[in-house]
Amino acid sequence: MSTAGKVLVVLILLASFAWIALAAGVDQLSRNGNAALAKAAADLQKAQDALAQSQADMVRLKDQTTVAQETGDQLLAVLASQRLDVDRASTALKDFLNKLQHQLETVQTTIAAAEQSKQQRTTEKEAEVKAKADAEAEVESLMAKSTELTNRLNALREEFKDVFSSNVDMVASGKPKSDSTPNR
Q1: Which candidate, 94, 92, 95, 90, places its Cα nearest to that of 61?
Q2: pTM surpassing 0.70?
């Protein structure tokens, strides 16, 4: 195998290892993104359930407020305090929901970047495959030329042997031949 062939084999192996490493990185990034997306969806569902529960609690609180108004101003202060607690919880839930929405947007951005990176890697791979095919075609053409030159060298050697043999015979016999120049 020629040195160029060996170098080409080594370069192809190195490129293959690099592609394997890049594919593993993209796969891990995809897995992490999917896990984060699933967690965000679960957290969103929990927040929606908690919000529905809070809304049900608010309806119950309004009913209690109506009953409390009948009992007097003394119970009204207690109910107002309870309502403030529910409002705080609702605000905390809304803040939590906003955080979850922000996390979801971040995950979506990460997924989009991963898709773009994957597309870029695919384009690079296609370019590498084309470059490899071009290099292989060039190797084939050089091999054909080498074979042709080797055949020509062998033919010239045979011609040289014939001319040399005829010259040796001519020198041994002592007479020159009339046609001592070789035909090419």
Answers
A1: 90
A2: no
CA angle 136, 142, 143 (to 5 degrees): 90
The one-letter amino acid at 162? D
pLDDT, mean of each 10-residue run, the chain (184 residues)? 85 90 88 85 91 91 79 72 90 92 93 93 93 93 94 94 92 69 52
Tokens of 167: 């010259």
Burial of 19 (0-12, 13-18, 19+ CB in 10 A): middle
Q: What is the rounded CA–CA span in Å between residue 43 and residue 55?
A: 18
Can you tell me the distance from the alpha carbon of 62 to that of 148, in angstroms, rounded to the nearest whole number?
A: 99
